Amino acid sequence: MAEPRVALWRVRREFRGGAGVHGVDLEVGAGEIHALVGLNGAGKTTLMRLMLGMLRPDSGEVRIDGVPISEVGSARWAAVGQLVEQALAYGELDVRANLRLASRLHGVSRRDAATMADAAIDELDLARYASVRARRLSLGNRQRLGLAAALQHDPTMIVLDEPTNALDPAGVILLREAIVRRAAAGAGVLVSSHHLDEVARIAHRISVMNDGRLIGSLDPGAADLERAFFALVHADDTERRAA
Q1: For residue 109, what are the domain limits?
Q2: Chain centre distance of CA 162
C-alpha cells in the first residue's frame, strides 16, 4: 500500500492561552483532495504550518511520503507546493520574473523555469499582467500569482490555505480545474476553506476542525453541508462546555 503524501499522528502544538492543535491525526493520499473546514481560529492554518515544517510540534509525528519531517531532504521539499496565509511575491519584480524565481527555488533549471512560468501564466489567465510588477497587482491577481507559483512545478504534495480568498468567480473556476488536474496526476492536496459548497465540488473528503481538534467529517455529496457543519461544531462546543 502506498504511503500517504502527508500523514500526521497525534500532532500537538499549543500556544499560551490554550490555542493551537491538540492531538490531530490526518492523512492525505496520492490523488486525493482533502478539504479542511472550520471556523476562524479553529487551528487550520497552524495545522498546515506544522505539516510544512514552518512550526515544530510539541509532540506527535509528521511524515512526508513516509519520511519523518526532520529527515525530509531538499529534493522531496522541492516537490511540495504551498500557499499558506498570503501570497509571497517580490513587489519590484513582474509576474513572469516572480514565477521564474519561484520555480528556480524548487530546483528547476533556468530554461525549464521560463517554460514553466509561461504555462502557469496561461493556466491562471495572467497573460495581461505578465509584465506588471507584483506590487501593482490587485489582491485577486496577487492571489493568482501566489497560486501559480505554488502549482507551476507540478508538486506531488499541495497545501493551500483559503486559496479562493480575493478571487473572482473566473479565478475560482481556474483554480478548481488546476487542483483537479494535479490530483488526477497523483498529487495529494490539502485545502482549507470556509466555502463549503466550493470545496464540496472537488473534495474526496471533508474534515471538520474545531478548537484545534478534528471533530468529524462531512460527505461532499450530501445536501445542506452548511447545516451539517454547524451541527457538528455546535455539538462539540456543547460537549466541551459540559465537560
Answers
A1: 86-154
A2: 7
User: H or E segment at 25?
Assistant: strand 20-28
Q: What's the one-letter identity of residue 76?
A: R
Q: Are residues 162 and 60 in the same domain?
A: yes
Tens digit of pLDDT for each residue in 141-194?
Answer: 999 999 999 999 999 999 999 999 999 999 999 999 999 999 999 999 999 998
Burial class of residue 219 (count of CB atoms within 10 Å of its CB; 0-12, 13-18, 19+): exposed
Burial of 68 (0-12, 13-18, 19+ CB in 10 A): exposed
Please state, in angstroms and as integers, the Cα–Cα distance from residue 116 to each residue in 105, 112, 119, 160, 223, following that order.
Answer: 13, 6, 5, 20, 39
**Gyration radius (Cα) of the chain, Å:** 18
Tell me, rounded to whole angstroms, the distance of Cα 106 from its chain centroid: 17
Judge contact between 27 and 186, C-beta under 8 A: no
In angstroms, rounded to a whole number, what is the distance separating the alpha carbons of residues 65 and 156?
9
Q: Specify the pairing of strand 157-161 against strand 188-192.
A: parallel
> Where are any strands of DSSP class E within 153-197?
157-161, 188-192
Q: Does one domain contain both 26 and 71?
A: yes
Looking at the structure, tell me whether residues 75 and 31 fall in a common domain: yes
**Same domain, yes or no: 71 and 103:** no
pTM over 0.85: yes
CB 53 within 8 A of CB 31: no
pLDDT above 70 coverage of the chain, percent: 100
